[in-house]
Amino acid sequence: MTKDNVTEQFLSIFKDNTGIIIKISRAFSNTSHDREDLINDIALELWKSFKKFKGDSKISTWIYRVALNTSMNYKRKKKKDSLFYSINDFKKDEITPWLVEKEQESSSELELLYTCIDELNEINKAIILLYLDGNSHDEISEIMGISKTNVGTRISRIKEQIKNLAITKI
Amino acid sequence: MELDELKNIWVQYDKKITDNTRINKEILKRMLISKPEKRLNWIKIKAGFNLLSPIILVLIIFMDVKFTLTIYFYIGLSLFIALSVITYIWNIRYFLLIRKIDFSDTILSIKKGIVELEKYKIKISRIKYLIIAPFAMLAIFSMFFQKPIFNIESIVLCGLILIVFISSIYYTFKFSINEQFRKLDKEIAEIVELEKES
Fold first, then answer.
1. How is chain B split into domains, by residue range?
2. Nearest neighbour of A11 by CB, restricted to B13, B18, B25
3. Domain extents for chain A?
């Protein structure tokens, strides 16, 4: 396959799965600057690992893994200089220039949901995002590298946690 | 807020994203090609500099400074080279470990890998601070001065170096390294717990 074909194939996969990247990046970043940066990083990591992707798992599984791993690692790096980034968060409404996201009204329920998700630890955050995206316990287990039973137990716990968090935040 | 309710909000959000997002393929294409190239070039420059830095250092030392080639000089030089080689090997090992990380692995294994890598880096800086740095200073002193000279200037200079060094160690260990270690150990314990549950 030629280089151009590979690029085209990647772009088409990327286009079909942009939603996953936007949702994950929003859950793992607090400012628009961070979000923009994170989306760029995810795109880059996907591109780097695309050449190694042999198709032994579903494309969405691969995208979830790369996006979640990149986001967790990004959050880790950013923790140290979060103050600097909050101060420099000038570009409030912009999104990375290659990803044109039209201005959309964010519902208060969605804001509340993201606030609650943000309070969870990294692993639980990843699990609930996968769950809300409609992945089965099997798929979540494959992406996360934990057992199916563990996924089930965790989802029930997270459900309780979110319920309590939502009550305190309303 | 029930989970079904959350799922509904999420599905609607997903639909909004699909309807409102348009990718500018040309910009993305350029970004994907130019950004890795820039990063790769930067890594190459860094690796090249790291590879050449000992040679450059030796050249500078021999070009600009007149040494008295006594036994102290050779002891200092050997010690300095040995320490540089050790540090160099650690840096290469760290670089190789980073390169091994593949983000398409499972979340748990990457998380564990990264935490262990961070711990390894902190361990190295600990050893560098406590063992390598004092011996490296000793090596440089033996290369430059051979015998200790006791006059006010030299004592003040050594005293100042010592104060800065001790304060830096105190600050790094008390407020930074120990805290980082504690956090990393906690994270590793959580991951091990998760693995056990699996």
1. 29-65, 69-148
2. B25
3. 1-103, 105-170
Name the amino acid, one letter, at B94.
Answer: Y
Which CATH number is associated with domain A105-170? 1.10.10
- Taking an 8 Å cut-off on Cβ atoms, the answer to whether A101 and B21 are in contact is yes
Residue found under tokens 């309807």: B19
Residues 22-41 of A with CB under 8 A from B: 22-23, 40
Question: Which pTM does this prediction carry?
Answer: 0.73
B149: left (phi over 0), alpha (psi -120 to 50) or beta: beta
C-alpha distances out from residue A25 to A85, A126, B48, B189, Å: 16, 11, 34, 27
Of B18, B104, B106, the CB nearest to A49: B104
CA distance B49 to B195: 41
Give exposure, A125-150, as e/b (b: 16+ Cβ within 10 Å): bbbbbbbbbebebebbbbbbbbeeeb
Q: Looking at the partner chain, which of B24, B111, B198 has a beta carbon nearest the beta carbon of A100?
A: B24
Question: Across the strands, what pairs with A100?
Answer: B22
Give the residue from B5, B22, B32, B177 with the most A CB atoms within 10 Å of its CB, the best one to mutate.
B32
Fold of the domain built from segment(s) A1-103: Rna Polymerase Sigma Factor; Chain: A (1.10.1740)
| Nearest alpha carbon to residue A118 among A41, A30, A47, A31 | A30
Identify the H or E element spanning B23.
strand B21-23
Tokens linked to A25: 């990046």
**Residue-wise pLDDT tens for chain B (198 aa)?**
667 777 788 888 888 887 777 777 777 777 777 766 676 677 667 767 766 777 777 776 666 666 677 788 888 888 888 988 888 888 888 878 877 788 888 888 888 888 888 888 888 888 888 888 888 888 888 877 766 677 788 788 888 888 988 888 887 777 776 777 777 777 777 777 776 665
Tell me how many degrees the CA angle B93-B96-B100 measures, rounded to the nearest 5.
Answer: 135
Q: Which two tokens stand for residue A19?
A: 């939603």
Residues in B touching A153 (Cβ below 8 Å): 197
